[in-house]
Write a structure and sequence with these properties.
Elements lengths: L3 E4 L3 H12 L4 E4 L25 E2 L3 H8 L6 E2 L6 E5 L2 E3 L7 H7 L10 H8 L2 H10 L1 H4 L9 H12 L6 E4 L4 H13 L3 E3 L12 E3 L3 H8 L8 E12 L7 E4 L5 E4 L12 E9 L6 H15 L3 H4 E15 L14 E3 L2 E3 L11 H19 L14
Parallel strand pairs: 1-2, 1-9, 2-8, 5-11, 9-16
Antiparallel strand pairs: 3-7, 4-7, 5-6, 10-13, 10-14, 11-12, 12-13, 15-16
Bound molecules: flavin-adenine dinucleotide.
Flavin-adenine dinucleotide binds next to helix 1, helix 9, strand 14 and helix 12.
Length: about 400
């Protein structure tokens, strides 16, 4: 069998390298940076922040795949207390009670691809509930107005992330670097040739799996049509001297923001006596990062009094087009840039035509790209499962 080259060593590239090597191919993995992991890396030092707030979903196919291979890192569940909401300017513990019957009416309904989420939700509930549910989807869309996305994109993901008891979110102890380390160990154990600091400027010999961010894949492929819609968000990570009573999560039903105290489930993320908070506020069209940051800080003021006096450390980042695919009304994952580019070139990543939530898309597209690359390389790659529907 000929060699398969994988360009990019994030979740997609690592998954592809593992799958191709497990399928019997000789694999070379080329990564531009000095370390593997891409956007799944966490920062070094005493404050271990992920690249934006990151959780793994226990009910998803990526989780099952990690379990099967004994690659799941240590993790923590959601702490029981401390979830708050901002609604109409007020930070509160309980959802507006009048809304609950409306939300329950939506459960179990199949949302249409062609309609925007806000209109669909309003047609079964009311404008107020539809607005609140739209903003709640900010946590995984990183979009200033999730209500304008396809209803079929938003609703199943909202049910999965926010309305499925018990909650499926899990926190990787020590940050997502632990997940990357686990995948890297498997890659190396399988004998994959890993080359770090290797920025690929031209497509290598095929079969090749391009597992970079989509904008970089577009450049490598010389194809401007390789693009898709994604979020634009301001991320603020802060270290705080610990104070009893700080919430674990604040879901912002007014402006689609989110605050999460990651050190609540995992104390190793911040120095002793401190907390690590990761917060995000989607940037509106025409808005500057400073303006979005000011809105986020107002949410923090309302949620964690005295946080400014307690601040010990901060990191601010803007993620533009880097937080996964979003589907507009009339489109679904099947319309995104295809995995198979022809002539032995395959795409993988979180903006590619594959189902799933956030990094699950990177993983699922990598499996599909590997199946096709193995076929091309002459192995029985068809034994891999094909893409199947998942929110
Ligand atoms: C704010 C934010 C929050 C998120 N939250 C979650 C979450 O809670 N749960 C979740 O599951 N996912 C989450 N995600 C998504 C998750 O981080 C990504 O889906 C995943 O990391 C993408 O992996 P990837 O391999 O597709 O891309 P990347 O991680 O971007 O990997 C691409 C790799 O390719 C390399 N590369 C690029 N160009 C070249 C080149 N020319 N030659 C060689 N190498 C190259 C890069 O250096 C990089 O290592 C979040 C993302 C963001 C931004």
């Amino acid at each position: 069998m000929s060699q398969i080259t994988v360009v990019g060593g994030g979740i997609a590239g690592l998954t592809a390298a593992i799958t191709c090597a497990e399928g019997g191919a000789s694999v070379a993995l080329l990564e531009a940076h000095d370390a593997l992991g891409g956007r799944a890396r966490s920062s070094e030092g005493p404050y271990k922040t992920n690249f934006g707030p990151h959780v793994l979903y226990k009910d998803g196919p990526l989780w099952g795949w990690l379990v099967e291979r004994d690659l799941l890192p240590r993790y923590a569940g959601i702490p029981l207390a401390g979830i708050k909401l901002r609604w109409q300017g007020e930070v509160r513990r309980t959802p507006p009670l009048g809304m609950l019957p409306s939300v329950l009416r939506l459960r179990g309904r199949e949302a249409p691809i062609d309609l925007d989420f806000r209109s669909w939700a309003a047609s079964h509930t009311d404008e107020r509930t539809a607005a609140a549910l739209s903003a709640a989807a900010g946590v995984y869309t990183f979009h200033h107005d999730p209500g304008e996305l396809s209803a079929a994109f938003v609703w199943p993901r909202t049910v999965r992330t926010l309305f499925s008891p018990p909650p499926a979110a899990r926190y990787v102890i020590g940050g997502w670097n632990a997940l990357v380390a686990s995948l890297e160990a498997r890659v190396r154990a399988l004998g994959v040739t890993v080359q770090l600091g290797q920025r690929v400027e031209e497509l290598p010999q095929t079969p090749v799996i391009v597992a970079t961010e989509l904008s970089q894949a577009s450049e490598l492929l010389g194809d401007d049509s390789v693009s898709w819609m994604s979020g634009h968000t301001l991320c603020l990570d802060v270290g705080l001297r610990r104070r009893r009573g700080d919430p674990f999560v604040v879901s912002d039903l007014d402006e689609a923001g989110w605050i999460e105290r990651f050190s609540a489930p995992d104390r190793t993320l911040a120095p002793k006596g401190e907390d690590l908070v990761q917060a995000q506020m989607p940037v509106r069209p025409g808005e500057s990062a400073d303006q979005a940051a000011a809105r986020l800080e107002r949410l923090m003021d309302a949620s964690m009094p005295t946080w400014r006096e307690r601040e010990t450390w901060r990191r601010r980042q803007v993620m533009d087009g880097r937080s996964g695919a979003l589907d507009a009304p009339g489109t679904s994952w099947r319309d995104r840039p295809a995995v198979d580019r022809g002539d032995g070139v395959f795409l993988a990543g979180d903006m590619v035509a594959a189902p799933g939530l956030l990094s699950e898309v990177a993983w699922a597209s990598a499996l599909e790209a590997s199946r096709l690359a193995l076929e091309k390389a002459g192995s029985a790659g068809g034994a891999q499962p094909r893409l199947r529907e998942v929110a």
